[in-house]
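Running log. JK asked me to keep both predictions on one page so they can be read side by side. First protein, sequence followed by its tokens:
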Amino acid sequence: MNNTDICNLALSHIGREHIAALNEDTEAARTCKLHYDLQRKVLLRAYTWSFAKKYIKLAEIDTKTPGWRYTYAYPNDCVMARKLYAKDNTWLYLEKNFPGNMDQVLLNDNTKALVCNHAEAYLEYTYDCKDADLFTEDFTQALSYYLAAAICVPLTGSESLAQQMQAQGAGILQEAKFTMAGERNRVPDYPSKYFKARW
């Protein structure tokens, strides 16, 4: 399955005819092309998809950021930073639960960077996966509905149908989270000796 196939799924959800390619000169193709990448990135950010997970040793930047000891370059292909690890593989950060261990900042030259208080840090993140052949079936299905919701009003004028498509996509995303959780079997990590002792 490729990007055009996913767009055709979205078009079929809202009762529109298929396209042969994203670069063809039709309203449907132009609308799909306009919205596809944004909806793909929105869905990638929504969950830690196994097919889009990467680990990288962060590259330190010779810049001082007030309140933080280390400043690291933000990976070019990162759409969502997930976890931070110290050089001994100790888990340091999980988004929403322990925000004090890492932050994202904008440097003076308008470049994004990550800051933390740990040397030689490693990052787990969701990368900007564009290869549709790598997408799981549930991601593809959810993306087709997210895209259908985005293109629905421009192509059909129906806001109620767009809302239905959005709800359908959200439901598939929830099911995907449950399904993928069943594939992951590991002992939970704890970010500090304090938490381990309390447990």
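And the second, directly underneath as requested:
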Amino acid sequence: MGTKLKLGLTGLGHLGKIHLKCILDCEEIELVGCYDLDTESLNNICTEYNVRAFDSYEDLLQNCEAVDIVTPTVTHFKLASQAIAADKHCFIEKPVTVSLEEALALKELQQKHPVKIQIGHVERYNPGFLAVKDSIKNPKFIEAHRLATFNPRGTDVSVVHDLMIHDLDLISVIARSKPIDIKANGVSIVSRMADICNARIEFENGLVANVTASRISMKQMRKIRIFQEDAYISLDLLTKEAQVISLLDAYQDNTIEIDTYKGKKYISLFQADTEPVNAIKEEIKSFAKSIVMDTETEVNLEDGISALSLVDAIFRLIENSNV
């Protein structure tokens, strides 16, 4: 393999076009071309960006080393299975598949064809999260709110699969523990599946996470609040800002002295410095690097399965409660 990764892109919807622009801006990648079922849209977009349009997915696979799958979730399993069986590395947008059974089947297939697989959990590359990631230590409680205005795109799956999964993935990374109890409820308003959902997840290590997602809100919100001993971390994934409020034992510059039951403590407010980056471009670059350098992908199939396991459990609880 040369220094540049020969990558094919399938799916040129709203998100697929964003991926296309990001790929073309990556020096590490040679885009061999694109495929989409909508041939008219495919040809128009490929002409606009001077990219080769492939007549079939099979033809695209034959001409690339790796494929970026940015299609509706219901197609992920079929397309990824074909690619893995053809020994092609895969970037699969989140959720990895519709069902946990399909994701586990991909895992079995990967064991026979050891290709690199990265799942598109883009919030892992959010500058706000990256800025405070190392400050998160053994949290006791997490509260997450992800609200979005209504968009018909994405209603082929529930709000749990579409929106909440972002926060469930981050919570899985933070928790590093097995969930032992989940409670959830949801309401279907404009689609056949839940559009608003709340879940409470208790982990083996004692962490409790309260997660809310809605896709019919009047405003956008993507906030996570993390509570741990002697610290409170506030993360705004929308504005990519983060704050850490810590309780220190000793005085430092710009700290505030308070009396506690443990004696005198000092409050420190840290506003994290964040660099403006294109998170989608960063995750694609990370995927390419893992192939060229032959290292583990930063968000691997196991990560996708962990997030989908929570999604699946929450989704089943909602479905059963609405029967």
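Observation for JK regarding the second prediction: The longest helix spans residues 301-321.
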